[in-house]
Structures are given as structure tokens and as C-alpha cells.
Specification:
Elements lengths: L1 H9 L13 H11 L5 H21 L3 E5 L4 H13 L5 E6 L2 H14 L4 E2 L2 E2 L16 E5 L9 H14 L5 E7 L8 H6 L7 H16 L9 E8 L4 E8 L3 E5 L3 E5 L4 E8 L3 H10 L2 E8 L5 E8 L5
Parallel strand pairs: 1-2, 1-5, 2-3, 2-4, 5-6
Antiparallel strand pairs: 6-13, 7-8, 8-11, 9-10, 12-13
The structure holds tryptophan.
Tryptophan binds next to helix 8 and strand 11.
């Protein structure tokens, strides 16, 4: 953790890994974000899942659901309910970096779905997946919450390639993708999703400094930083930053003092927004292709079903 912090703060421009957002307080703030009026992503995705998953699962008849970055259980239930209604699946493999999180989620779902076998796997999606569970065919993989967007294009291709490598030819991947501004979504609406009026996202962003102060012994003065989020139309992505409102010197164990100038910003997160050509290119790079693409009525968000392309031998 300290290595990563040292690396990010030695760069120009400075950055911090979004991994450090999610302590207990950070996870709670993130839950709150998903319920904000401005944060349309979660509820739009949820209604797309309700609308399309019963049919897609009916066609695929998967025997297992593999949820990557096992996010909020409320979306998982939509998938599991659709599988139960089809008499299709019996195995659920939630996959996450946080063992504690996985354990809690698994326990809850076991209680609610007595016929389901739950086999959590601790895994970091940025590395090749090593699954201890053998997957039945076909299996349905899910990467929801626009999580893919938190990786730049090269990293997104790598991540999906790891997923593709564990997929069989009869498997499918359902992907939630937030879309670029367009007729049904202004840039201002998109930016508001990452900078809400109540300041929850700002608190979430600043929480990263609290986590670092506690876990790695930095001494970031929280009152010297403010939240900033903006859409970069060239890159097609939201960037979240912490901007210093005065010059500060921060103690970083093993690196010495790091100075942050007044007005200098530290990038903490990216959230890439997609259009069809961009996502086609990323999927193709990972040997996947779009089989279904469904948007909400105003084109804010897409639910995508991807199928494997043959792997080169
Ligand atoms: N992947 C989601 C998104 O990009 C959720 C998310 C990750 C997020 N980090 C965030 C949302 C920071 C708000 C702020 O929207």
C-alpha cells in the first residue's frame, strides 16, 4: 500500500489509487452515492437488468453466475431471481478483492437462496484470474456498476482478457456501461453524478486522505483539499481530483516530505464513458464481441451482453 502511495505521489501529475477509498466509511459513503438523485447510474442499470436479464438468462440457461467485483447485492438478486425462475443456475461465484466483504455477502445470500451453492473467490481483477472452483458450462459472468470505466482503455482490455481467458465458448458476460453525453444526457448531468449537491461524493473523495493518514502514516490536512470532478470530452471520461487550496507539505513515510502547491490537484479516480465503437474496440481487444446492446430510453447507460470470440492459438 505504501509502495503504491509513494509511486503515485512521485508522479507528475500526482495520483492516488482508488483502491484506498473503500474502508468501512468509504463503502458506506459509496452506498449513499448510489442512492443520490444525481447518480443515475445505479438505478438505470437496475431497471435495465430487470427488463433484459430474464430473457437473456432464458436464452443462455446458465448453470452458474460469476459476479466480478461482487458489488451491491440488490443487483445480484435480480440475476439470481431470473436464474431461479428459469430453474437454470445452482452455483454463484462472487469474486472480489475484499475477503471480508465477500464473506458477508456470501452468508446473506446463502440464507436467502437455500438451493444455491455460493463459492466466493478472493481475486484482484487486475491480475489473471485463478479460480479454485471449476465452472459449469454455460456460465454467466457479470461486471456491473460501470466498473470497467474505472480502468483506462489498455487496462480495460487487460482486465477483460483475464475474464475471457476463464470463459468457455458457450459462456457470456453481461456488462454495465455508462455512456457519453448525448441528446438524452448533458455533460452537466454527467458531471453532477460525480459532484452532488449534498456533497456526498466530495466526502467520499476526501475519505481517501483519511484512509492514507490512518493506514500508511501520511499527514494530509483534510481541510486543505477540495473535491473536483469534471468530464474530459477528448478522453471521454470523468476525472475526480483533490485540489489543494493552499500549499502543503505532506509527510510520506519512506519518501520524505511531498509538497503540493496551491491549486495543484491529485487525481483519485477516472470513470470512462463509452460509445458503441469504443466498447466494440475494447471487447475485440479482449476477444469478445457484443451480442446484445440495450440502452435506457434516453441513452444514458447501456447493458451489454458479450460473447466470446475464438482465442488465437
Ligand atoms: N464505477 C462507478 C462509476 O464510475 C462507481 C464509482 C467508482 C464511483 N468510483 C467512484 C462513483 C467514485 C462515484 C465516485 O461511476
Amino acid at each position: 500500500m505504501l509502495d503504491e502511495v509513494r509511486w503515485g505521489l512521485s508522479r507528475d501529475p500526482k495520483e492516488l489509487s482508488p483502491k484506498f477509498f473503500y474502508d468501512t466509511r468509504g463503502s458506506r459513503l459509496f452506498e449513499e452515492i448510489t442512492e443520490l438523485d444525481e447518480y443515475y447510474l445505479t438505478r438505470t442499470e437496475r431497471s435495465l437488468l430487470r427488463r433484459w436479464m430474464p430473457g437473456w438468462i432464458g436464452d443462455l440457461q446458465p448453470h452458474a453466475l460469476v459476479e466480478l467485483g461482487a458489488g451491491s447485492a440488490s443487483k445480484t438478486r435480480i440475476l439470481l431471481d431470473a436464474m431461479r425462475a428459469q430453474d437454470a443456475g445452482t452455483l454463484f461465484v462472487p469474486l472480489d478483492v475484499s475477503e471480508e466483504f465477500l464473506h458477508d455477502a456470501a452468508e446473506r445470500l446463502r440464507g436467502e437462496y437455500p438451493d444455491l451453492t455460493v463459492r466466493p473467490e478472493v481475486a484482484d481483477l487486475t491480475h489473471p484470474l485463478e479460480m479454485s472452483t471449476e465452472l459449469p458450462s454455460p456460465s454467466l459472468f457479470a461486471l456491473l456498476g460501470s466498473t470497467l470505466g474505472n480502468f483506462d482503455e489498455a487496462a480495460a482490455v487487460r482486465l477483460l482478457s483475464h475474464v475471457r481467458a476463464t470463459m468457455g465458448s458457450a459462456d457470456a458476460l453481461v456488462l454495465g456501461a455508462d455512456l457519453r453525453p448525448g441528446p438524452g444526457k448533458s455533460q452537466a448531468q454527467l458531471e453532477a453524478a460525480y459532484d452532488d449537491a449534498a456533497g456526498v461524493t466530495a466526502r467520499f473523495n476526501l475519505n481517501i486522505l483519511r484512509v492514507l493518514n490512518r493506514e500508511v502514516g501520511t499527514d494530509f490536512p483534510l481541510d486543505a483539499f477540495r473535491h473536483d470532478a469534471f468530464y474530459d470530452p477528448e478522453e471521454g471520461r470523468i476525472e475526480m481530483h483533490l485540489v489543494a487550496s493552499r500549499a502543503v507539505s505532506v509527510r510520506v513515510p519512506g519518501l520524505g516530505p511531498v509538497s503540493v502547491d496551491e491549486g495543484e490537484s491529485i487525481r483519485t479516480e477516472i470513470s470512462c464513458k463509452y460509445d458503441r465503437p469504443t466498447l466494440d474496440r475494447i471487447l475485440d481487444g479482449a476477444r469478445l464481441r457484443v451480442a446484445r446492446w440495450e440502452e435506457d430510453d434516453v441513452g444514458r447507460y447501456a447493458l451489454v451482453l458479450a460473447r466470446p470470440l475464438p482465442l488465437d492459438v
